[in-house]
Amino acid sequence: MTEALRNRTAATLRMGAIGLMLWGGAMAAPSAAQDGSLFDPRMVINGQTVTNFEVEQRMLFLRALRAPGDPEKEALKALMRDRLGAQAAKDAGINVTAEQVNEGLTEFASRANLTVEQFTAALADEGVAPETFRDFVANGLLWREVVRARFGSQVRISEAQIDRALAENAKTPQVRILLSELIIPVQGEDVSPVLDQARAIKAESSGEAFASAAREFSAAPSAARGGRLDWLEITNLPPAIVSQVLTLSPGEVSDPIVVPQAVVLFQLNGISDVAGAMPAQVEVEYAQFALSPGMDPAVIRAQADGCDGLYPLARDLPPDQLRVTTQMMGEVPQDIGLELAKLDPGESVLRQRAGYTELLMLCLRTGVPEADPAAAAEIPVTTEEGEAAEDAPLVDREAVRNRLGNEQLTALAEAFMEELRSEAIIEER
């Protein structure tokens, strides 16, 4: 799989995970299955077997995502949810047709502007069988139908709830987090040894022990400070990383997070609210400059105090040696997003890539705040003739209604899945 196609596929899986959150498919990178035959039981759920082969395939399938979480743990969790959801569907007499599954496959692949055949071929490059993709989609559709049948009639969003949500948005504080990081590089394609090392560090690292481990093992510039970072605004971080660290208690260490060419651990040191509205989204523009042999990074940085200064330095180089990209933060690869979160516009960091050094520079960061209906309503709009213009909707209330409805449905679905899990007989081998 080419790097461009890999990134596009990873973005697709990430969006799919968000859009299909009710499916319960957790996203993570792979690690080796436990010892034994591929078709030996790895887990038994209410008498239904999950094999080592299924675990290995799920981890391979999720590899293109490059998303956070302990790979083996997340794969087992996802397969357990698949089994429990399928059992709930059987009990309720719910099925999905082959036509529905094919439509689901098509819709999923189309998010990367690919056909099902192209998407399946891209996954095959990662060692993923077509049946793994089909099973993932089929189980997701099945669980979605279970949730709709069981809870769809219970979700009712009133106008008062929409008003309260809009009022809360208007006064949402900006949240900052204080983290320490520990970044272990991955050599080659096999991430398993580094994952094992990261798990061992997590098991032994609490409080000041994490700082000692960061000084010893981390390849990040922050290693000299025990991995400690400055305060970071959560909207400047990749959403998948935020979802991991916000579940931590102060002093707690995250599960290993797999990013391209590295495995990362975070320790949460503090959370703070500051005055001001938090942007709903953040858009970043950043430059990736592949330095040629003989280029002195210190000279490059001295000559370019912003992204515009990089263009003259790359004038006689191949076009792909300097790439400038504009993306919403949720679409930025996690390893890049993590570095950009630490930078102000015009600042840069050096990254060791396969065979070359890359200068990564933040060009611009733009926050898109929520609309303030009250502020906008203070200025009346009139036509040239002085007549009052037709009132235009200041906010999309239906979008807010849908969001609140999805949040309710998700909460009900998660509670039901937890009920199924607590009542199930689960054996791990």
Structure description:
The structure is a single chain. This protein folds into three domains: 175 residues, Triger factor/SurA peptide-binding fold (Orthogonal Bundle), CATH 1.10.4030; 105 residues, Chitinase A, domain 3 (Roll); 88 residues, Chitinase A, domain 3. Helices cover 44% and strands 19% of the residues. It has 15 helices and eleven strands. Helix 2 crosses helix 3 and helix 4 packs across helix 6. It is globular and about 70 Å long. The N terminus is likely disordered.
Topology:
Blueprint (H helix, E strand, L loop, with lengths): L2 H17 L21 E5 L2 E4 H12 L7 H21 L6 H13 L5 H9 L5 H22 L7 H12 L2 E13 L6 H13 L3 H10 L14 E2 L5 H7 L11 E3 L2 E16 L3 E11 L5 H7 L6 H4 L8 E7 L5 H8 L6 E6 L2 E13 L4 H5 L19 H27 L2 E3 L1
Antiparallel strand pairs: 1-2, 1-11, 3-4, 3-6, 5-6, 7-8, 7-10, 9-10
Helix pairs in contact: 2-3, 3-6, 4-5, 4-6, 7-15
Second CATH tier, the architecture of the largest domain: Orthogonal Bundle
User: pLDDT average, as an integer?
Assistant: 82
**Residues in helix, %:** 40-55%
Number of domains: 3
CATH class of the largest domain: Mainly Alpha
Q: How much of the residues is beta strand, in percent? A: 15-25%
Number of strands: 11
Strand order across the largest sheet:
4-3-6-5
CATH topology of the largest domain: Triger factor/SurA peptide-binding fold
How would you classify the helix and strand content by structural class? alpha+beta
Query: What is the CATH homologous superfamily assignment of the largest domain?
Result: Porin chaperone SurA, peptide-binding domain
Q: How many helical elements?
A: 15
Radius of gyration equals: 24 Å
Series of secondary-structure elements, N-terminal to C-terminal: HEEHHHHHHEHHEHEEEHHEHEEHHE
Subunit organisation of the chains = single chain
Termini gap: 34 Å
Largest beta sheet, briefly?
4 strands, antiparallel
Which regions have little confidence, pLDDT < 50, spanning 5+ residues?
A: 1-34, 371-394
Q: Globular, elongated, flat, extended or rod-shaped: what is the shape?
A: globular
